[in-house]
Design goal:
Elements: E1 12-20, H1 26-40, E2 43-49, E3 52-60, H2 61-72, E4 82-87, E5 95-99, E6 120-122, H3 124-130, E7 137-140, H4 144-149, E8 150-152, H5 166-173, E9 181-185, H6 190-201, E10 206-210, H7 213-219, E11 228-230, E12 232-233, E13 240-241, E14 265-267, E15 276-278, H8 281-286, H9 293-296
Parallel strand pairs: 2-5, 6-10, 7-9, 9-10
Antiparallel strand pairs: 1-3, 1-4, 2-3, 8-11, 12-13, 14-15
């Protein structure tokens, strides 16, 4: 098996990256990013804020390489890690660059800056070993619909629709586990940077996070995504990607209508609903792309098929 899963004959790349670092003028950085990506022909979504940068872009190999070189030449981002996936074309339709208060919306007033406090990072090999212990709690740091198509074996599914709901949910469901080792993970690592820091400040004693997130875990040549079931939800037109490259992979997604195994997400065809739901081929045909009978018979039924619930202007979430 190949030890570098990002290489191949593909002519395009997808870059996923973030870095928490103080930024004096995030608006200027956003302008610079927009101009740079436009010049290179990159598409995607980039956020800037006073706490750093968070982005995911796609483009031809040479253009992506030039972008990485440019960012690493900036002292603020010299050590920024890029997660790279091969692609056959763009996975975004447009380029969006936004200035935000937070790189990921958490809105916890008591959350410490990431550069001051965050959980202990575990390498993929350390993570695989530790998550098989009997005394750990494995907390998925993503939302429910991301969990439903794929997750680590034994992980807790958070009953949240947005990242900012985590503090209350954790207090209500894990408040008695503050002495136990808590393993947190998310797509690329950025959400766990904030989540683990907040948990430490909230009194949790042993908080860990998967370094580089699920995406890096699936690329590691030693673990090859072991103990991950299903696919990993991503915020671009691919919708979900393979993570487990071993012979032990299970399909965990279930059809919204009949419960059959599936790994296909679709947005409800009713424009007034547009609910993203897992659906098997038979039910998708039977329901004509609708998530319910009421949506199937609704007068306005033709919603554009967006890659995720937040449509084409969604912010990157890693």
């Amino acid at each position: 098996m190949s030890t570098d899963l990002s290489k191949g004959e593909h002519t395009f790349k997808v870059l996923l990256y973030y870095m928490f670092v103080p930024i004096d003028d995030p608006a200027m950085l956003a302008t610079e990013q927009h101009d740079l990506c436009s010049e290179l022909g990159l598409r995607g979504r980039i956020l800037t804020s006073k706490e750093g940068i968070n982005g995911t872009v796609s483009g031809p190999n040479d253009a992506c390489d030039a972008y990485v070189a440019h960012m690493h030449a900036d002292p603020r981002f010299a050590s920024m890690v890029f997660k790279v996936d091969p692609a056959n074309d763009h996975v975004f339709r447009k380029l969006f660059v936004r200035v935000k208060d937070e790189l990921v919306t958490f809105r916890a007033a008591d959350a410490p800056p990431v550069w001051e406090c965050t959980g202990q990072h575990l390498s993929p090999e350390e993570w695989l070993e530790m998550m098989q212990r009997d005394d750990v709690v494995i907390l998925d740091g993503r939302t429910g619909y991301e969990f439903d198509i794929g997750h680590f074996r034994g992980a807790i599914r958070p009953d949240v629709d947005s990242f900012r709901e985590f503090p209350e949910w954790i207090e209500n469901h894990l408040g008695e586990d503050k002495e136990r080792p808590i393993l947190t993970y998310c797509t690329g690592g950025i959400r766990c940077e904030k989540l683990s820091g907040w948990m430490l400040k909230a009194g949790f004693k042993n908080v860990y996070q998967l370094d580089g997130g699920i995406v890096s875990y699936g690329k590691d040549p030693n673990v090859l995504g072991a103990k991950w079931d299903g696919k990993c939800y991503v915020f671009d037109e691919r919708i979900a990607v393979n993570i487990n490259h071993t012979d032990d992979r299970k399909v965990v997604g279930r059809c919204h209508h009949c419960g059959a195994p599936t790994e296909t997400y679709r947005n409800c065809i009713n424009v007034e609903c547009n609910l993203q739901h897992l659906v098997c081929p038979e039910c998708e045909q039977r329901m004509e792309g609708a998530c319910s009978i009421s949506c199937q018979t609704a007068p306005r039924r033709h919603a554009p098929q967006h890659p995720h619930p937040y449509h084409s202007s969604a912010t990157p979430t890693t």
